[in-house]
Design brief:
Elements: H1 3-12, H2 19-29, H3 39-54, H4 60-74, H5 84-87, H6 98-108, H7 114-124, E1 131-132, H8 134-147, H9 157-167, E2 175-176, H10 177-181, H11 188-196, H12 202-212, E3 219-221, H13 225-235, H14 243-258, E4 267-269, H15 270-280
Antiparallel strand pairs: 1-2, 3-4
């Protein structure tokens, strides 16, 4: 088998890729190493994927239908190209959430966007408390080790404690949002947003949230987000948001807080919505 077949046959046979194998697969197609599969690279990947999934005897009409289906499933921002985190949705890779962001940052030689950073944060901050306790941080530390190819016994409590205290710079027993942001090369406007979010009071947020969440469920459905954001914007002392800005903000909220596309029945709990919205409003 050639290199193409040996890589994609693993997908066809439903084997799980290790982090290194996923990286090898990505590098195989991202020839210019710009952090995206686009134009000829994307076409090559999709045709190879079609071949190992549907077979060699596929006519052009079947290919276009398959291509459209795949892109609708994984191209979250509908920009016609694939990022590593989008590709990971259809590649059965071992659980390492940081891997795809590591690839993106390394290959583009750029800082993480505010939205990408918040997606990382939301993945580990399971209870949307706004900080990582030791249990949540252990998952984060495990993935950090793998991304950096460090072989460490994660059952070693002493080492974990030392690692945890390295990130917990104010020694309050948790890793807070700004402490984690200092670990990653996050764009400057995210750090500015951390300062500005102090103006975004939880009391005002809760008042508007409760008015929309009349049944007191504690969650907001995606289809209710536009009304909620509009009502919240009206209470702000800052410039009111336009309809387009509200639509764009809601789309980013859904992607960041849920990791999915715009499913109208998807829900976001109150604490997570407050956390994400308080940042995205200022970037």
């Amino acid at each position: 088998l050639n290199r193409k077949s040996s890589i994609l046959c693993q997908l066809y046979e439903r084997k799980h890729f290790t982090s290194k194998e996923f990286r090898r697969l990505w590098d195989h197609y991202d020839k210019d190493q710009n952090g995206f599969l686009e134009t000829a690279e994307l076409e090559r990947f999709l045709r190879d994927l079609t071949e190992v999934t549907l077979g060699e005897e596929v006519d052009e009409a079947e290919y276009e239908k398959f291509k459209s289906k795949i892109m609708s499933l994984i191209d979250d921002n509908n920009n016609g190209k694939l990022e590593a985190k989008e590709l990971s949705k259809i590649i059965p890779t071992e659980e390492n959430f940081l891997l795809v962001y590591s690839i993106q940052a390394q290959q583009m030689g750029a800082q993480l966007s505010s939205q990408d950073f918040l997606e990382i944060w939301c993945h580990y901050d399971k209870d949307s408390s706004g900080y990582l306790d030791f249990t949540e941080a252990k998952d984060f530390m495990r993935d950090m080790m793998k991304v950096n190819s460090l072989k460490v016994d994660l059952n070693n409590v002493t080492y974990l404690d030392t690692f945890f205290r390295t990130f917990d710079t104010d020694d309050n027993g948790v890793i807070e949002l700004d402490e984690m942001a200092s670990i990653f090369p996050v764009e400057e406007k995210f750090h500015n947003a951390l300062k500005l979010r102090k103006r975004f009071t939880k009391e005002n947020f809760d008042r508007v949230f409760d008015a929309v969440d009349k049944e007191g469920t504690g969650v907001m459905t995606v289809k209710s987000l536009p009304k909620f954001v509009t009502d919240l914007s009206k209470t702000s002392k800052q410039r009111k948001l336009t309809d387009k800005e509200i639509s764009d903000l809601c789309a980013r909220l859904v992607q960041t807080a849920t990791g999915s596309k715009n499913d109208p029945d998807e829900t976001i709990d109150c604490d997570r919505l407050y956390l994400v919205l308080s940042i995205l409003l200022h970037v």
